[in-house]
Design goal:
The chain has 10 helices and 10 strands. It is an alpha/beta fold.
């Protein structure tokens, strides 16, 4: 796998195999410069969300990079307060205004069961998905998908969906592999995107990963990102430090052995876990 490699979604759209995550990235010149640094380093896939509050910086960073818009794959996400058909259409227009873009490459429902819609989440998701299908069919979005959805949430969505989701973005890192959900998504031809592939920094204290970093002459982060790729995930590493931004995409000149991939997969390290979407208080 090379830095230019792409996965193909179930609708034929190609997506760069590593993305630049922007969660907690500020919406200012620091954020703009981080996006520009990422693009200069070779990233061609930028992941943001309405709730991150930095869509304007992402859009400006893409614009100032000097790389043609069609060469950059941009993702954003619908926030929990805006589920339902009309709300989703309005939220999408706000996202596009902030990004200052004519189209979006990928749009995701960020969480399946927000507190605001907990008594009617199935209906709210169905309305959002209908709106996203219309935007997709109109060419405003090239691909549509989900984030933090578990199997029962997807089953409910598929009862009314006319377009099959192309992506599920979930938390995946050494110590949290969500194997059953990954298998379910693969069975439904959905690409798995891995957010927090570095365990929000907790992987750096795992002795086994430190040992592998030494073995391969790479950083712990590079080992974890490489593992994610060899598992068939699409990792979304995030950093604001230029050197780390560059390191995190420099993962295509080595390959982990099958034994090492399995060892990492079996780790029970304390790298945190994602919130339960059915009990989260947001």
């Amino acid at each position: 796998m090379k830095s230019t490699d792409r996965y193909q979604l179930n609708n034929g759209v190609e997506i760069p195999c590593v993305g630049f995550g922007t969660w907690q990235m500020p919406d200012d010149t620091t954020g703009v410069n981080a996006v520009k640094t990422a693009i200069e380093a070779g990233y061609r896939h930028i992941d943001t969300a309405a709730i991150y509050g930095n869509e304007e910086s992402v859009g400006e960073g893409v614009k100032e990079s000097g790389i043609a818009r069609e060469e950059i794959f941009v993702t954003s996400k619908l926030w929990n307060d805006d589920h339902g058909y009309e709300n989703t259409l309005a939220a999408f227009e706000e996202t596009m205004k902030k990004l200052s873009m004519e189209y979006l490459d990928l749009y995701l429902i960020h969480w399946p069961n927000p507190l605001k819609y907990r008594d009617r989440w199935q209906e709210a998701n169905a309305g959002s998905w209908k709106a996203m299908e219309e935007l997709y069919n109109a060419g405003r979005i090239r691909a549509i998908g989900l984030s933090n959805f578990r199997a029962h949430h997807i089953d409910a969505l598929l009862e009314t969906a006319k377009v099959k989701p192309m992506v599920n973005q979930i938390r995946l890192c050494p110590g949290q592999t969500q194997a059953e959900l990954v298998a379910y998504c693969h069975d439904h031809q959905m690409l798995i995107e891995a957010y927090s592939p570095l365990g929000t920094g907790k992987i750096f204290g795992v002795p086994e990963l430190k040992g592998l970093a030494q073995k391969y002459g790479k950083s712990v982060a590079q080992v974890a990102i490489r593992w994610s790729l060899q598992k068939g995930y699409l990792p979304l590493p995030k950093s604001m430090t230029p050197d780390y931004i560059r390191q995190n995409i420099d993962v295509f000149d080595f390959e982990l052995s099958g034994e090492d991939v399995e060892m990492i997969t079996g780790l029970e390290c304390e790298c945190g876990s994602s919130s339960d979407p059915d009990t989260a208080t947001f």
